[in-house]
Amino acid sequence: MDNQDNPSQETLERWSKDPNNWIWGIFYYNKEDKRLLPPKKNPLMGFTINFANPKSVLFSIGALLFFVFIISMITRKH
Fold first, then answer.
1. For residues 18, 24, 26 and 29, what is the CA-based torsion angle, rounded to 10 degrees?
2. What is the pLDDT of residues 50-72, one digit of tens each?
3. pLDDT range class, residue 1, cuts 50, 70, 90
4. For 32, which DSSP code?
5. Rounded to 5 degrees, what are φ and ψ at 73?
6. Backbone torsion region of residue 30, taken as left when φ is above 0, otherwise alpha when ψ lies between -120 and 50, otherwise beta
7. pTM given for the model
8. Under a CB-based contact definition with an 8 Å cutoff, are residues 39 and 16 in contact?
9. What is the rounded end-to-end Cα distance, in angstroms, of the chain?
10. In this structure, how many other beta carbons lie within 10 angstroms of the beta carbon of residue 27?
11. What is d(CA 29, CA 5) in angstroms, rounded to the nearest whole number?
């Protein structure tokens, strides 16, 4: 049995590849996986957000606010 606080690399890979942990094939949702940014199904494509992690909401809002700030600074008129 895997330690929930420190799962093995095999367990992490199994979770990432399990289609039951993917909503519509694009949204990763796994309550057992404590990572905020697990790799996508194809690790060469980067990372995704684990929407089962409570911190993912804060991360998403922070990223959205950052991009809104950048856009507002670019389009700001003096």
1. -60
2. 999 989 889 889 999 999 999 99
3. very low
4. T
5. -70, -35
6. beta
7. 0.70
8. yes
9. 61
10. 13
11. 17
Q: Length of the chain, please? A: 78
- What are the structure tokens assigned to 30, written together? 């796994």
Which two structure tokens, joined as six digits, stand for 21? 């942990």
Sequence spans of domains, the chain: 9-75
Q: Residue written as tokens 């950048």?
A: 70
The pair of structure tokens assigned to 31 is 């309550």
Q: How far is CA 58 from CA 19, 50, 70, in A?
A: 25, 12, 18
- In whole angstroms, what is the distance from residue 60 CA to residue 55 CA? 9
| Tokens 């998403």 belong to residue | 60
- Tell me the residue type at 77: K
The CA–CA distances, whole Å, from 59 to 10, 22, 24, 48, 66 equal 26, 19, 21, 12, 10
What value does the mean pLDDT of the chain take?
Answer: 86
